[in-house]
Amino acid sequence: MNNFTFYSPTEFVFGRGTESQTGELCKRYGATRVMIVYGGGSVVRSGLLEKVKESLQAQGISFCELPGVHPNPIDTKVYEGLELAKSFQPDFMLPVGGGSTIDTAKAIAAGYYYEGDFWDFYIGKAKPVKALPLGVVLTIPAAGSEGSGNTVITNTRTHVKNGLRMPMLLRPKFAVMNPELTMTLPAWQTASGISDMMAHILERYLSNTPEVQIGDRLAEGMLLAIMEMAERVMKDPMDYDARANIMWCGTIAHNDTCSLGRQEDWFSHAMEHEISAEYDVTHGAGLAVIFPAFLQYASTHNPHKVAQLAHRVLGVADSGNPSHDALQGTMVLKTWLHDVLHMPVTFAQLGIPSPDLELMNTRLHKLKGEILNGYMQLDAAATLEIYKLALD
Amino acid sequence: MNNFTFYSPTEFVFGRGTESQTGELCKRYGATRVMIVYGGGSVVRSGLLEKVKESLQAQGISFCELPGVHPNPIDTKVYEGLELAKSFQPDFMLPVGGGSTIDTAKAIAAGYYYEGDFWDFYIGKAKPVKALPLGVVLTIPAAGSEGSGNTVITNTRTHVKNGLRMPMLLRPKFAVMNPELTMTLPAWQTASGISDMMAHILERYLSNTPEVQIGDRLAEGMLLAIMEMAERVMKDPMDYDARANIMWCGTIAHNDTCSLGRQEDWFSHAMEHEISAEYDVTHGAGLAVIFPAFLQYASTHNPHKVAQLAHRVLGVADSGNPSHDALQGTMVLKTWLHDVLHMPVTFAQLGIPSPDLELMNTRLHKLKGEILNGYMQLDAAATLEIYKLALD
């Protein structure tokens, strides 16, 4: 096991009706002027936004609003938010929504105190040293952004989707999580979110760092719980407890609970980012396409963790042949993603029958280097093969 | 799933050599005058105390020392510490040791700002509103006190062992955790610690709150990892990775990771506290005696969670008869505690062939009420039966 620091100081306030505590929580964390960030109509239609505003007003907290964040959040919305922040001068950010909304708010929080272009942070040209604090009201369990210091933004000029990781500076102070708010999510969005959180766990699970048995067991437990609850929630979207289990899994999948003491592998996420940056697909759906291909490739080239996953999570009996079992597990997972989550698991099913694999692959290695050095050593030929395995 | 708040803001700095960061961490959390609290000789003999002092000196932090904390920490040491604190006026507490040392430091931290007797906090007569902040250098993985706001102290006049739970006020700011420091622990202490942390998980697992599948899976994963690693560490005390896995399990067993959204059952702990308060036995050993008896009783009276444990963790095949499987699982665990950990699993093996069960039982219910209302409803007759099941 490698040395590690585990620091997850977000206060998670979880359960029915918890959104009414938003104002109180903002106040406790020092907010007096709040910028509310949100997406489209559902937050408004459901009455959630109104409730949040009322709870702010009840605490004497003033606020401004930045609506209109879209899935796959983009730089132009961040610039708009930074303009608004300049005039309103908030001392606290409050995204109400899912990962896109939170990531946009984090970008504004980091950019607020910076003289230059906030994008500098996302290309490693500069590092934020100060940021506005933020709290979150979560409505879509998926990205895990409510418990992480991570943010991902797409540059609309270059089509590059880049991430920034500031575990101390950009981790939310609190996250209000009411599973009831997720009951009206469309099935597609629910399923994409589940796909995303499963990928977050697998990226941590796929590691060559030996001897992190507790991390493996925690990750396997999360996957078992998610898969059991996903089957329920896809049948009955109003199943509160299934929603609750899934919502919490989405958070701990990404707050480092199962990352401890090992190198993670974020290259399937990176491979997906190229897909969604180019074709604007839903992130979780892109992952459902890439992940089985990634595991299939691993089954031949480095099967041991995939075989363990197959045995402990996917119901594959141990045949003594890791490659065989890994491949069988991959097929179980691929079928499950398709049959239970109704996710696309190939480019063709994603509606992109002829993707420009060379373009994405070139961008991928331009961004991440010649060799992706993670669970496997992947050069351009290897990643191209993985992209091809995802074709159909 | 019940509503819950999860808030675990301790910064865990884990791995080889991390004790050299102690001074730096103290400084980061605002310490200028530190009271070091520790137990007996091993912290001195190993050179750890010297290293910690050097790292404080390197940061210009002054300190005083309170040595001599014994296992099953007692009120008189707290009074001694409070006297010392009055003259030295520390602004930060730094226990270096295991649960007893940390719990003593927490009691001093809470008592420091209180005019009355610190024991008032432990009998519910008063509630601390302010406490000295504390950081921890952990040397014995067991109690989980490094990641919790809990402290347990024994009153030497009344033989009552009472707890105080202040998740916000008494949770350590940081915990330095170097598994190497645990390699020289005697086998008995290693095994007692493992027994203690397994009990912490089981107390959270045994719950009637339905639909917390993720909490169950996390708890099961922790138990699987602990049992695998325990077998290794009992064979080879110098097995770093086994030590590391166990050390981290001890923390997450008690920092609420697997408590989310359900009522816990702390009555086997309470039953053990009566044993160690009366007979001054090692807490983990007392738990190894009480827990199998508790599970055996549950196998008849409320088997469902014990049966699930048997199926998912203890290798018992599902026979369709929960009571049968629960009892079989109990026996597997009891045998494992005895054969692998070399723990006593009966009062007789604990060296108390004729314990005063009536006395302990009376004290238990005087402290906890007529009915212990947890995973089971236990009146005095029921707890007496459990004590009796532990006789031999």
SSE topology sketch:
The structure is a homodimer of 392-residue chains.
Chain A: E1 4-14, H1 22-28, E2 33-38, H2 41-45, H3 48-58, E3 62-66, H4 75-88, E4 92-97, H5 99-111, H6 119-122, E5 135-138, E6 150-155, E7 160-165, E8 174-177, H7 187-205, H8 213-235, H9 240-252, H10 267-279, H11 283-301, H12 304-312, H13 322-339, H14 357-368, E9 372-373, E10 377-378, H15 380-389
Parallel strand pairs in A: 1-8, 2-3, 2-4, 4-5, 5-8
Antiparallel strand pairs in A: 6-7, 9-10
Helix pairs in contact in A: 1-3, 4-5, 7-8, 7-9, 7-11, 8-9, 10-11, 10-14, 11-13, 11-15, 12-13, 14-15
Plain-language structure description:
2 copies of one chain form a homodimer. Chain A has 392 residues and is an alpha/beta fold. Helix content of chain A is 48%, strand content 13%. A 6-stranded parallel sheet of chain A has the order 1-8-5-4-2-3, with helices on both faces. In chain A, strand 9 and strand 10 form a beta hairpin. In chain A, helix 11 (283-301) packs across helix 15. The two termini of chain A are 38 Å apart. Chains A and B meet through strand 1, helix 8 and helix 9 of A and strand 1, helix 8 and helix 9 of B. Strand 1 of chain A pairs antiparallel with strand 1 of chain B, so a sheet runs across the interface.
